[in-house]
Fold this sequence. Notes:
Elements: E1 4-11, E2 16-22, H1 27-33, E3 51-56, E4 59-60, H2 72-76, E5 79-81, E6 86-87, E7 91-95, E8 107-119, E9 123-129, E10 142-147, E11 152-157, E12 166-172, H3 178-183, E13 191-198, E14 210-215, H4 220-230, E15 238-244, H5 253-262, E16 266-272, H6 291-294, E17 300-305, H7 307-320, E18 326-331
Parallel strand pairs: 1-7, 14-15, 14-17, 15-16, 17-18
Antiparallel strand pairs: 1-2, 3-5, 3-7, 4-6, 8-9, 8-13, 9-12, 10-11, 10-13
Amino acid sequence: MTTHYHIALNFEDGVTRFVDCGANEKVLDAAFRNRINLPMDCSDGVCGTCKCRAENGKYDLGDDYIDEALTADEAAEGLVLTCQMVPKSDCVIAVPVPSTACKTGTAQFAAAVGEVTAFSDAAYELVLDIPAEAPVFLPGQYVNIDVPGSGQHRSYSFSSAPGSRRMTFMIKQVPGGLMSGWLGSAQAGQPLQMTGPLGTFYLRAVTRPMLFLAGGTGLAPFLSMLEVLAQQDLTQPVHLIYGVTRDQDLVMVDRLAEYARRIPGFTYGTCVADPQTTHPQQGYVTQHMPAQVLHAGNVDVYLCGPPPMVDAVQKCFKAEGIVPASFHYEKFTPNTAGAA
């Protein structure tokens, strides 16, 4: 019988902290026990100061709070009082203040290089051996990885799923790039320092069809999400569109094919923007979104790609009159050479 649950506290500034909460323990108490001062005043379900949003998981709020603190409509929308919330499964809670306001911050941990694989001149896959205490994260989140000897860091999304034997990252090869240059000569066993997990881009509870849009190495967080979905009893359709600039940028497609075999209802398509491509689908992701994957707006959209791609998708939805049920996105810009 489960005696505790994992609770992810996702703060307004993107910092995520995980705490263990007893099967009969209130979330506010579990957070305080872990030295995380969630907002509170009365702790008796009267003031509403500790109000947060439960994004995933099952829980019990009891009936010891007053309507002025949490109305029935708010509770129906997923709002909770952490001073009354007793989890009945692992949960994800959005906390509407920055982590610094709760006297907490990002976690730090170390890992060692396992192997580095180059995909032509397009990308690297960095595989890290997990330390004794493996970091916990939500599928889709990222970490800051210190580049040895530089005093700088770079941010990368996990491409592995939480709980995997090794941590993996998909990293774009950038000419003159700080991390790209280091990875070109990285040796197995070299230590790396990390800070995280971070980010509000992560997989929510699956309640309707989903559309994943990946641009280049923005495929990484979706590989993490797909591995998690492969372990669930998925009943909703999921379609992924993977767009790149050049033919050689289209990497790890074999892994998508494997997920299509493992996950019922998962399909994917690829496209290449280069007008000279030999790929059968030329153009951008916005040109390859058939109506059937948009479900007339009854769809949760997840997008990870460069800012122009995010802007183009938003404009496309507006032009087509599509308002997704939810739209989660992460913009990223490849880093160039670091300053001396």
